[in-house]
């Protein structure tokens, strides 16, 4: 099938897509957007998180056949158009919340979603919002610090 969708604000067309392959596969292998990571492929780890029509989704659980006409935003699309990092991305770097980095794109998309909905989340709200994202390196405390830093940066810059 031919897949037409919008990715990071640009119309994209991909030919010879199998309707049963995952959107994650289309993004990474066909559109060469490797930010979304492939770990569990069953909706458990959040490393493949993207926005689908403005709603946070695990791209490993979305079939290519369901993605036609949809608007997708990946971690690459969260950065500003001039490729300057978004405050959420800066905060993860500055807070030391990145170790191996495999989980980081998913945490960044989920944090962006949280802070778009709630500029001043409490720690329980942060933990609840990020409950679908797993990290095996950091112990999560620096990720919580990164979310707090991102909230403060967004208050002043976004
Ligand atoms: S790869 Fe999609 S949730 Fe883990
Ligand atoms: S930084 Fe390695 S899995 Fe989170």
Q: Could you walk me through the main structural features you see in this protein, from its secondary elements to its overall organization?
A:
The chain is α+β, with helices and mostly antiparallel strands and 158 residues long. 37% of the residues lie in helices and 13% in strands. It is built from six helices and five strands, in the order ββαβββααααα. It has helices spanning 23-30, 75-78, 87-94, 104-117, 123-129, 141-157, and strands spanning 3-7, 10-14, 49-52, 55-58, 71-73. The protein has a five-stranded mixed sheet with strand order 2-1-5-3-4, with helices on both faces. The longest helix is centred in the C-terminal third of the chain and has 17 residues, at 141-157. It is globular. The chain starts with a strand and ends with a helix. The mean pLDDT is 96. Residues 98-103, 135-138 line the site of one FE2/S2 (inorganic) cluster (FES).
Provide tags for this entry:
158 residues; 37% helix; five-stranded mixed β-sheet; binds FE2/S2 (inorganic) cluster; alpha+beta
Low-confidence region ranges: none
Distance between the termini: 39 Å
Name the ligand types.
FE2/S2 (inorganic) cluster
Question: How large is the radius of gyration?
Answer: 15 Å
User: Overall mean pLDDT score?
Assistant: 96
Helix content: 25-40%
Largest sheet: 5 strands, mixed
Q: Pairing-aware structural class of the strands and helices?
A: alpha+beta
What percent strand? Answer: 5-15%
Number of separate strands: 5
**Sequence of strands across the biggest β-sheet:** 2-1-5-3-4
Strand and helix order: EEHEEEHHHHH
Instruction: Note the total helix count.
Output: 6
How would the global form be characterised? globular
